[in-house]
Sequence to fold (252 residues):
Amino acid sequence: MTIRLRNCSLVLMTIFCVGCSASEPAPTNRITQADLAIRAAVDAKAADLAPVELQSARDKLAQARKMMAAEKYTEARRLAASAQVDAELAEAKAETTVMRRAADQILRGAYKPPTEAERESRKPLTSEPAAKDRATQ
Amino acid sequence: MRLNNRLKFRDLLALVFFLTSLVIGCAAVQNPTLEGAREAYEKALRDPLIARNAGAALGRAGQTLQTADKIWAEEHDAAEVEHLAYIVQKRIEIARTIAQRRVASEEIEQPQSSR
Fold:
């Protein structure tokens, strides 16, 4: 009787352990999304305008890849998701900085966005003096 | 004998009281990181600048907060909930940044239209 009970508990323990170790699938998509988010942030000049957030995203993505290689998929998924959100924040901050600088320049009057007429006439205006300069040299 | 019985009854009563308070206490246990994220989200909801300019971005923070609440209530998975709370905080920050960008964008458009 006691041997049966012991066997039964061993079987149950094995089932429990197998159930616990059956972890989630590899978060390949998450890693790809994080990578794309980092690329988008780099395109938005986050390396100059939001370096802390961009570096955090890169470090986390590198860690996530290490965890993937070690088959620690839960940790890999969390790190990749954190990397993605850090990269999205880096991109948003970079874009906001660009927009804020432009708005400040306009408010100070240092930057005047070209009117439609100026944009139309820009090509002949910029090319003619250059041609004249070359001719005089 | 009577005194002994009374003592036993008192012990039983104390045990019942202890177990009841333990059950109530466990049910009400909060995760401080999750509560911090909730506080930040509610503060962002009250911010008219975010509500007007980055409602959709803030909505994503709210969805993640709901997921974190569900996981905390059903599984009590502290590591997962703390991870999701971090995502909520970052999404709030993204929403605030987007709102600031829209304000700057409006400032650029206003002087042009007034000229």
Q: What stands out?
A: The CA atoms of residues 34 and 85 of chain B lie 5 Å apart. Chain B has a mean pLDDT of 87. The interface with chain A takes residues 79-80, 83, 86-87, 90-91, 93-94, 97-98, 100-101, 104-105, 107-108, 111-112 of chain B (CB under 8 Å). Chain B has five helices and no strands.
